[in-house]
Amino acid sequence: MSDKLFIGVMSGTSIDSLDAALCRISQNSFKLIASHTIKWDESVHTLLHSLCSSSSDEIEKMPLACNSIAEHEARVVTELLDKANISADKICAIGTHGQTVRHRPEQNFSLQLDNGPMVAAITGIDTIVNFRAADLANAGQGAPLTPIFHKLLLSKQGVNRFVLNLGGISNITALDNKGGILCGFDCGPANTLLDLCCREILHLDYDADAKVSSQGHVVDSILNELLQNSYLSKPFPKSTGREDFNRNCIAPYLDMCKAGKLAIEDLLYTLSVYTVKCVSLHIEAIVNKYKLERGGELVLCGGGALNPLIVRLFEKSMLDFDIKTYISQDFGIDASYLEAQAFAYFAYLFVSGIAPDIKDCTGATRPSILGCLCPATDGCYSSRLK
């Protein structure tokens, strides 16, 4: 396939915004052309958060949420194309992640709310959705999928490199010194618990530039309690989400903040240390399992890579492994849009009929073509049939 234009759309566990990336992709090249972000309407934001927990009216809420998600996805795509001055008929396909509200691979399902046919109808562009289902059908976790994209952009000959995406949940890709994928899995929380604290205590979406958390100190008793989470000792491959890391994990500490018995800056600082500690424990496990030599590089991406406190904590923690810490911007890669770019790449793989091999990351029994096509009436798919 010659180079073509694809759009990836991503909303993460934190449900803070919707990111879109326009990319030019071929077999031998990948380039980000433009990117754009929109906020969720407040009513939709509230609805999506409510659906992350069980309730009696889920069946009524879910189709309404799917439609709202699709409308927002179509809007971010339309605004992105306007920004880039590119018409919809130039786009081969959109890859949308949808919004995860349940991730239960042990029960063989992961639920991303979306309405691909609506996105295709509004934009006039073929839309590919439901990227995790095929991996789950082949006994995989359905996550993480991003290691294949991390390998494309960030593998490096001669260096063991760890790529860490800090979204709502942190997920890591371990690349060996020949550029191959050793493993990839979710480590634990990144922004999800921090942002939850900010919303509930500070009435802010997040702690911008870590201004509040940087004033705090670690509370060892809380950190030690958090480190007892059973997910941390599970063998990989594994994946997680709000099922393991949610408000219940920190409810007593939120109550302490509200009662004036715990400073919010100390809770935020402790949760930041917890994020880093979860990753450090897993890097140690990877180094031991694969008998890696000391040294290497850690590349931070995702929204958490823009948090100066978390970056400093990683720089300090990685000294124990002689690993040097970078952020993806150091290599010309926008940390905020890496996952949106990944879903543009997944759309490219689907259209190309490529089944990526991510067995070492998800535990699937075999590679599978990821995604389900929702064709637009006059999109690329129908044009090929005529």
Automatic annotation (TrEMBL):
ATP binds at G12, T13, S14, I15, D16, S17, L18, D19. The keyword Thylakoid does not apply. It comes from the Bacteria. It is an enzyme of class 2 (transferase). Gene3D superfamilies: 3.30.420.40. HAMAP family: AnhMurNAc_kinase. Belongs to the anhydro-N-acetylmuramic acid kinase family. NCBIfam families: PRK09585.1-3 (NF007139). It catalyses: 1,6-anhydro-N-acetyl-beta-muramate + ATP + H2O = N-acetyl-D-muramate 6-phosphate + ADP + H(+). This is Anhydro-N-acetylmuramic acid kinase. It comes from Anaerobiospirillum thomasii. Its EC number is 2.7.1.170. One of its GO terms (molecular function) is kinase activity. Keywords: ATP-binding, Carbohydrate metabolism, Kinase, Nucleotide-binding, Transferase. GO terms for biological process: 1,6-anhydro-N-acetyl-beta-muramic acid catabolic process; amino sugar metabolic process; peptidoglycan turnover. InterPro entries: Anhydro_N_Ac-Mur_kinase, ATPase_NBD. The keyword Ribosomal protein does not apply. Pathway: Cell wall biogenesis; peptidoglycan recycling; Amino-sugar metabolism; 1,6-anhydro-N-acetylmuramate degradation. Catalyzes the specific phosphorylation of 1,6-anhydro-N-acetylmuramic acid (anhMurNAc) with the simultaneous cleavage of the 1,6-anhydro ring, generating MurNAc-6-P. Is required for the utilization of anhMurNAc either imported from the medium or derived from its own cell wall murein, and thus plays a role in cell wall recycling. Pfam families: AnmK.
